[in-house]
């Protein structure tokens, strides 16, 4: 049985805490956070603490806080001798030094507080300084029913950057698309089959091969017509920027 504590009260901490509680091979001993109010959602955890001095002795401490706060939390755990990991995609493993046992436990997924997740479909990027600790992180991932991948800090940072393009930027594009639909009083839901097929093709034949649309066809007449149909200057700027990027890419 792996004894574990989580430091953090955000979306990642909320979801992994829930997953750990549902695992037969993990005992979630404590959740720590600065705000007593934010700790209220962890009411079923044995220990909810606001002072890291009261953190119980466990096998693994998972730091699930903002990137800027990881180093400070690590310093506050100077007397802890077990395995300490963070869940960040863009922070290196070295931010947890000088702890002898340290690593990374990064779930490559977007987390919203009350969205249900299937951990069998979530890749966990793990890294550890010591081989024995790496094995422990493999066991931790398996206990969630998830799959682990050995990914070093440079590779993980690249994955996180790619995820920003694919997920964060992609989601913003959908926000703009929804706004255009609402302004013209047409259902945003009509785009769902298109987006599902877009994702399917991107991971089947590759996004470059799957690319379609007026910029790919160099259809300047349609591009000009659509630009004229946009009333929001920010949408015009975004459309122009993305169109120019596509035109240049397919000139290669």
Automatic annotation (TrEMBL):
List, for all copies, the residue spans of the domain called DUF2520. 122-245
- Give the matching Gene3D superfamilies: NAD(P)-binding Rossmann-like Domain, ProC-like, C-terminal domain
Domain of life per record: Bacteria
Q: Where is the Pyrroline-5-carboxylate reductase catalytic N-terminal domain?
A: 3-77
Tell me any Pfam family this protein matches. Answer: DUF2520
Q: Which PANTHER family match?
A: CONSERVED HYPOTHETICAL ALANINE AND LEUCINE RICH PROTEIN
This protein is called DUF2520 domain-containing protein
Origin organism of this chain?
Leeuwenhoekiella parthenopeia
